[in-house]
Amino acid sequence: MLSFESDYIEGAHPKILEALAKTNMESLSGYGVDEYTKIAKEKIAAACALPDAQIAFLTGGTQTNQIVIDTMLHQYEGVIAAQSGHVSVHEAGAIEFTGRKVLTLPSHNGKINATELESYISDFYNDGNHEHMVFPGMVYISHPTEYGTLYSKNEMAEISKVCRKHKIPLFLDGARLGYGLMSNQSDLTLPDIAELCDVFYIGGTKVGALCGEAVVFTKKNMPLHFDHLVKKHGALLAKGRLLAIQFDTLFTDDLYFKISRNAIDRAEELKTLFTKKNYKFFMDSPTNQQFVILENSKLKELQKNVKFSFWEKYDETHTVVRFATSWATTPEKISELEKFL
Length: 341
Prior knowledge:
Blueprint: E1 2-3, H1 14-22, H2 35-47, E2 54-58, H3 61-72, E3 77-82, H4 86-89, H5 94-97, E4 102-105, H6 114-126, E5 135-142, H7 153-165, E6 170-173, H8 177-181, H9 190-196, E7 199-203, E8 213-217, H10 226-232, H11 241-250, H12 255-276, E9 280-281, E10 289-295, H13 296-302, E11 306-307, E12 309-313, E13 318-324, H14 331-340
């Protein structure tokens, strides 16, 4: 079965498996108190051009979003996100499970807009009953978004400006950050993101690692006793080496960026193929997620040989589906898909 179901369906890049095997019998302290964790943090800080960045490793995206949001918000605060945001739609209420609330703004192809954000916060404080409401305490964005779209540097700077005006942190979900940075349409760099955001994470699970996300606190604003809080969430990995060795490998010789570029190249081939076959796109995505509108009978026929993701109903006879490329997608897979299309 040919699969474009997601970007985490393969295991890990061979260099990561090689590094894990090579270090397997070393006796290392647990909970991230080891040399590989120190080295990985130094490499990530250097890539961000932020020597004093505070960095922590966690195992997955939902876990990371929940912990960052829960530990940085006060009890009376919630987090602002797009209606289509991952924390709002596809995380099983993980944020609400902690007692926090997701406060939604309209989604514009997956993105929020700085003007609407400013209006939301201003309207909140101008409401005489706001003490009886959930305070906006953080802004969450994802880059790329859930629709594969990207914020421009100017758009992110405008959102950052609103956050700083109201003294609330801007949190960027970077589960697919590599694919955003390497997109042909990106004008943002890793140092740009480190400058504009208060906290963000570099996704490994979807970009070549077995598992793992690197959380970067950019303003010396890591919550006090963060390891304690992570453990309280049941998320402090005893074998911290597992995450550190993977990120050490990913940030050696620009491997993270090189393998991210592969996903973009294959996605461009996908776009060319769908266009050639006269398929209609739901929106123009410049990253590794491509959204296509399929007639329902064609969808069922294609599913006999190809895996892809349901996204949303388009109308009574058509469905929006997602095809995702990854660090591991080969040109041969694109050619094989052409036969079935």
